[in-house]
User: Which sequence fits this backbone?
């Protein structure tokens, strides 16, 4: 049975952002059932969640593109009140070579969930979107009203199309609400070092590469470009602590379930409001941990955006949520997680 706050279905709940969100949901008094196909994660994550919260979330190993499996899940858990949808493929580069896989995974998952929500009295869905929808912005920081640019990868396109699907369904009178969250760059790990990011193979994203280079798994970090039109020539992003990010999902769920949403569909940028360059992030990591990151400057990575950071005012004011963790603390958490993986003999 779920407790009084009700049950939340977290798709992709053993993944990086999903697992941190399950922790915060349980800390806030929600019951959770996770569905995950473990394509890019590991069932051990459930143990980490249990060690942090003292509660073991229910877990169903299945693929959200499998309509029958999802239908059975809703039959087994008739108390699901809300959904947070993290289940998606997320590697920009891979999406260029496997576009159909990306469209199938990301869009069929969403379509199945929306179909079943309507039939099962689910009040709302929180959708993981991305700042990628703004492309290379003409003006920074970006607000939710900044123009949406044509997507530069199938991954980015799935986020844009998903936002449109949800919007169209709700305008057509669907019996649920949605909160769309556009993440900037999520980094760091839970301060307990029980859960964190666990990339498959060679990391494509900056921080896992940094921690792996720092611990000696990788020879050196390649800094992609020092000739951008920025203060030190490297790209600028808005790096947001993953626990801060997870907490925003709890607020979003509460808004939908407690009928506080101002509109049936709401969109929020989730970032810190600070633009940080790649070289500044490396300085922060070294200052916070005392560990050097071996590096070399190489050419630009195709498809990279020069600079993008959030104006999070709307989320700050309307959700009453703010990213609070200083970047040095976030870097320390990423390093503690890498060291924990080493202790466990995983990496
Ligand atoms: C991109 C997408 C984001 C998506 C994410 C998932 C944009 C603006 N963002 O983030 O929506 O969710 O991928 O993969 O399209 N860097 C290095 N060396 C490395 C790795 C990265 O210098 O080895 C630099 C990059 O050039 C970039 C920064 O670090 O300037 C961050 O890169 P990364 O972590 O890959 O994230 P984004 O490309 O910003």
Assistant:
């Amino acid at each position: 049975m779920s407790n009084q706050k009700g049950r939340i279905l977290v798709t992709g709940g053993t993944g990086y952002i999903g697992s941190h969100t399950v922790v915060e949901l349980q800390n806030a008094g929600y019951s959770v059932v996770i569905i995950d196909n473990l394509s890019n994660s590991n069932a051990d994550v459930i143990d980490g969640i249990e060690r942090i919260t003292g509660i073991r979330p229910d877990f169903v190993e299945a693929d959200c593109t499998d309509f029958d499996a999802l239908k059975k899940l809703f039959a087994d858990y008739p108390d699901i009140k809300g959904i947070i949808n993290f289940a998606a493929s997320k590697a920009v580069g891979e999406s260029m070579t496997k576009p159909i896989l990306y469209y199938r995974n990301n869009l069929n998952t969403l379509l199945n969930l929306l179909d079943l929500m309507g039939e099962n009295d689910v009040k709302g869905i929180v959708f993981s979107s991305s700042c990628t929808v703004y492309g290379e912005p003409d003006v920074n920081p970006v607000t939710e009203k900044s123009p949406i640019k044509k997507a530069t990868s199938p991954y980015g396109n799935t986020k844009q199309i998903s936002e449109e699907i949800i919007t169209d369904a709700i305008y057509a009178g669907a019996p649920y609400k949605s909160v769309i969250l556009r993440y900037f760059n999520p980094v760091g790990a839970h301060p307990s070092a029980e859960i964190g990011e666990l990339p498959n193979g060679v990391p494509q994203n900056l921080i896992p590469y940094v921690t792996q280079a720092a611990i000696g798994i990788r020879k050196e970090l390649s800094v992609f470009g020092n000739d951008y039109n920025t203060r030190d020539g490297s790209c600028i992003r808005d790096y947001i602590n993953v626990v801060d990010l997870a907490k925003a999902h709890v607020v979003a769920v509460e808004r939908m379930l407690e009928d506080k949403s101002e509109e049936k569909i709401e969109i929020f940028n989730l970032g810190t409001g600070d633009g940080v360059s790649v070289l500044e992030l490396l300085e922060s990591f070294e200052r916070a941990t005392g560990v050097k990151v071996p590096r070399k400057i190489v050419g630009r990575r195709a498809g990279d955006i020069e600079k993008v950071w959030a104006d999070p005012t709307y989320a700050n004011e309307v959700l009453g949520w703010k990213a609070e963790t200083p970047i040095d603390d976030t870097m320390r958490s990423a390093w503690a997680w890498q060291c924990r993986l080493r202790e466990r003999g995983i990496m």
